[in-house]
Amino acid sequence: MSTAEETAGGETSAWGEVTPDAARRLLIAAVEAFAERGYHATTTRDIAGRAGMSPAALYIHYKTKEELLHRISRIGHEKALEILRTASRREGTAAERLADAVSSFVRWHAGGRTTARVVQYELDSLGPDARAEILALRRQCDAEVRGIIEDGVAAGEFDVLDVKGTTLAVLSLCIDVARWFSVDGPWTPDEVGALYADLVLRMVGAK
Amino acid sequence: MSTAEETAGGETSAWGEVTPDAARRLLIAAVEAFAERGYHATTTRDIAGRAGMSPAALYIHYKTKEELLHRISRIGHEKALEILRTASRREGTAAERLADAVSSFVRWHAGGRTTARVVQYELDSLGPDARAEILALRRQCDAEVRGIIEDGVAAGEFDVLDVKGTTLAVLSLCIDVARWFSVDGPWTPDEVGALYADLVLRMVGAK
DNA sequence: GCCGAAGGTGAGCGGGCGCTTAGCGTGGCC
DNA sequence: GGCCACGCTAAGCGCCCGCTCACCTTCGGC
Asked: Is A164 on the interface with B (CB under 8 A)?
């Protein structure tokens, strides 16, 4: 199955910081299961089974099923923020930085859509405290993109009616890639990234 | 709670065709519960309770919990298709028709986000047959929007690199409104509709 | 060679799930 | 007034859920 290969392959690097090995295997198994079926439809027995362990083994490394989702969500959001921050802080015009931010953010959502789906769509399954923590990271993502657009407007590069609304629309467009993208579809992550960078530059009226 | 008011008020009209009354109350209760908690996290006891009935009453009107989701999904998609079709077939330039389609489609996703959330995000919880039926409706929605964009390109009104990809992006942008829109936020559905119509016209390079 | 810590297992608990069934009240029809 | 069809409820079945616990290995330090 493509999801397993992908998560076991390229995506796994993102989880390198998780130790010990058994805890990482469980986390990766949980990402796959949550992405396929959703958090509530996934059983702890399924997660443990995918990691090649007994159901009880999960509770040696994680207190609850929700802690797994919380850890996945935080690591994923930190990665997303890092991507946007890198693009935002590079040298270049606002248009170049925005195109870079959008294309790399979209590539992440398309290529790592297993992770991105969990990160973007299972937020409501977290408890209040964990959700608040993740929402703070999300606002930082928002601020990075808004910063680039504000720079472009200030420099006369962009022509935008509503900076806040346009920022939201740009992020929304990128995030929804995780919902519809499929490796069986006609596009590669790179192609979608390039197409979307062009569309977003049009949205902000780049000269 | 705003969701209850909204569904009991303006949105209810959409369910007028559902009879008898008890079946309609159960359907509306299910829409609210699925939108708040997700399909898998919603119990049949919760649905029946919201409709003011005992758990067993649900099974007089619906064979299974999944049948409720199926019915909601089909009615919702038919409504979405009708909105796009109306805009697509009106008189006017391609730009006017596209702006109309986007603004009314977005208004529906924002104003009726309780319904829209279920319709757009709970598709995977349906069984294979029901999902296939709904996906056919979704492809028809896609075709309506693509038709307008193709008309605009043919008439020299639009400047689009990738018609299929741009169509997908436009629909994706509109659909994701159901994920983030909140009545407590700074915009009304009308304002988001107008903003998005402008953004989409920019995306297709309308003259 | 013994020991304790770390990491794992099999069995199973309390509970809530989707759904069923036996029976009850009630309104329309003759 | 007698009767039945319909809409509904109270009770509960069988199942599987998240999670626990008693016990079992393995292995480095001495």
From this structure: yes
